[in-house]
Write a structure and sequence with these properties.
single chain; alpha+beta; Jelly Rolls; Type 1 dockerin domain; 14 helices; about 25% helix; about 20% strand
């Protein structure tokens, strides 16, 4: 009964469920496989990537990325000559990608890997460097990737052997040509991925700099005209093998969704979003650096409109797929399934009230899934932030100000998310994704705290606000050592420094004044609400003109238009 009461408190207060079923992302040895859409893309403005800079120094030991993902961080692939032809370059096209159809074949690339390099090489470039593989930090000011470079580094390329008359290029990694030759295998099934090259360097190699970055060149030595590269892996090495820590391996692409990850059918035409269990298993094995790491599969997707039963069914299908694939692959020994319900954002085909239902339904399905499977956990950023939508409106500003939540640092620059240029607007123009690296860092920190079962900094009694009761909660932990939410300065002990910080946060957290009463929808003052008022509103659309912003929420938008239309008194 005690365990049940604790779980209920976690669900209600921390927006987390089954957190004790997860490995410790901050300290344990594990492989994190992110299954996601554009919410989980590898840019500095996405939460999973920003999370890497929130980890303790030395915990990040490996990163896998697509070989051809625009804006990918921290691993980048750069083609060094414009004379080579990049074919099947579908950019942000999501789903099944056509390969080799131009030479009479019938091959597809199905996995959601964010794109691939499919190159037809120019003979004049033989013997030249073909591409540059580089590792640069997510946050340029942090030594977040120290463990990748302490004792040496492994670099691996994964891809396909071409078929249908195309021949694989002989490539090598300068200057380690002996260890980086393309495998001399016969062309295999078009769906199969293989290790194309692998190389390593010592910790004092010139291609690694003291700041924790790396750069490798891939040379073309002739012998073929095609390179089909899908994955690039950077992983730290120790004398006994691969380093222990967190190995970050996203399997993401734009516009994927829960249903497409659950669909086990092979795609057969451009744009179809599905892949088989065999393909997933092949990818997991070829992109593994160690086969004895625990795996955490993290679903991080745009919230979709669906009933609770639909969500539960689809999540259950994904769970069964992963369970079968992990068992067949021989990886593990253990695996966990973590569903992250994202922050509140625009949900297609819903209004503002429909958004609430969408997030609540998804979270209800996650709770049901966790009751059914013992290795399922969930975190809801929607509930962590109390259903607030960070769109610059009144509720967003109120939450940040009343809880002293505005300060964020990225690349040694500190900003207040309440001030310009943010004004509590952390979403992109479509009100879907994170706005930039600062917004992503803020959300990544929240995700990490939620995974610990904590609330936002200073809310030690977990009641959703900063108040004097948090002082009592801190004093009750006085002198405690180790990881503790009351240890606000991270010194390892709860002491007077934490008391000072909490006092400062309580002083910072001030009540936000209630919004002013709305304006009259009769904007031109002619005594009627009609077409002239609507035209005034449209002419100022998107502005913060206080004479036109009827709702006083800081922007002239659809909410003001709705008030005009619902109070229409002029004749048609």
């Amino acid at each position: 009964m005690i365990a049940f009461l604790v779980l209920a408190q976690v669900l209600d207060s921390y927006a987390g469920i089954g957190l004790d079923r997860l490995p410790d992302i901050e300290h344990d040895d594990l492989r994190l496989v992110v299954l996601g859409d554009s919410f989980a893309g590898q840019s500095r403005s996405r939460i999973p990537t920003a999370l890497l800079s929130e980890l303790p120094e030395g915990q990040l030991v490996g990163v896998r990325t697509s070989a051809h993902t625009l804006y990918a961080r921290p691993v980048r692939t750069q083609l060094l000559s414009e004379r080579h032809l990049v074919v099947n370059d579908q950019g942000f096209t999501s789903g099944c990608r056509e390969l080799e159809l131009d030479v009479g074949g019938n091959a597809w690339m199905r996995l959601p890997i964010g794109g691939l390099f499919d190159l037809r090489l120019d003979a004049r470039e033989t013997g030249q460097s073909l591409m540059k593989l580089s590792y640069g930090k997510v946050d340029p000011s942090l030594n977040e990737s120290r463990s990748l470079f302490e004792d040496g580094l492994l670099v691996r390329g994964v891809g396909r052997f071409p078929t249908n008359g195309l021949s694989p290029a002989h490539i090598s990694c300068a200057p380690w040509s002996e260890s980086c030759v393309v495998e001399g295998a016969e062309p295999a099934e078009p769906s199969k991925l293989h290790q194309l090259f692998e190389t390593s360097s010592a910790s004092d190699a010139p291609e690694l700099n003291a700041g924790g970055e790396a750069e490798f060149l891939v040379d073309w030595n002739g012998g073929g005209d095609t390179v089909q590269l899908t994955d690039v892996i950077f992983h730290g090495m120790q004398s006994q093998g691969a380093s222990e820590g967190l190995y970050f391996t996203p399997l993401t692409d734009v516009s994927w969704g829960y249903y497409t990850y659950s669909n086990p059918e092979p795609c057969v035409e451009l744009g179809i979003k599905s892949f088989t269990d065999e393909e997933l298993q092949n990818w997991l094995v070829e992109t593994s650096v160690r086969d004895d790491q625990d795996l955490v599969f993290m679903m991080h997707l745009d919230t979709e409109k669906a009933e609770v039963e639909q969500h539960q069914m689809i999540l259950n299908q994904i769970w069964h797929r992963v369970d079968s694939v992990v068992e067949s692959s021989g990886l593990g020994p253990n695996w966990s399934f973590l569903v992250v319900v994202p922050f509140r954002h625009d949900v297609n085909n819903t209004g503002i009230s429909g958004e609430v239902d969408s997030f609540e339904d998804l979270w209800a399905a996650v709770r049901l899934l966790a009751e059914e499977h013992s290795n399922v956990s969930g975190v809801s950023l929607y509930h962590y932030f109390q259903g607030v939508r960070f769109d610059g409106g009144y509720d967003a500003r109120r939450f940040l100000i009343e809880n002293c939540q505005g300060q964020v640092t990225w690349n040694q620059n500190q900003v207040n998310l309440v001030d310009l240029p943010f004004q509590a607007d952390l979403l992109d123009p479509q009100e879907i994704h994170m706005r930039d690296a600062y917004s992503a860092r803020y959300m990544a920190n929240a995700l990490l705290r939620a995974l610990r079962g904590w609330s936002f900094p200073g809310d030690l009694n977990q009641n959703g606000s900063l108040d004097s009761a948090d002082l009592s909660a801190l004093l009750a932990q006085w002198g405690a050592v180790g990881v503790n939410e009351a240890d606000l300065d991270g010194s390892g002990v709860v002491d007077d420094q934490d008391l000072d910080l909490l006092t400062q946060r309580l002083d910072c957290a001030v009540p936000y004044p209630p919004p002013p009463p709305p304006l009259s929808p009769d904007l031109d003052g002619d005594g009627l609400v009609g077409i002239s008022d609507l035209l005034l509103l449209l002419a100022n659309w998107g502005s913060d003109d206080p004479a036109i912003d009827i709702t006083r929420d800081g922007v002239v938008d659809w909410s003001d238009q709705l008030i005009v239309l619902s109070n229409w008194t002029a004749s048609p």
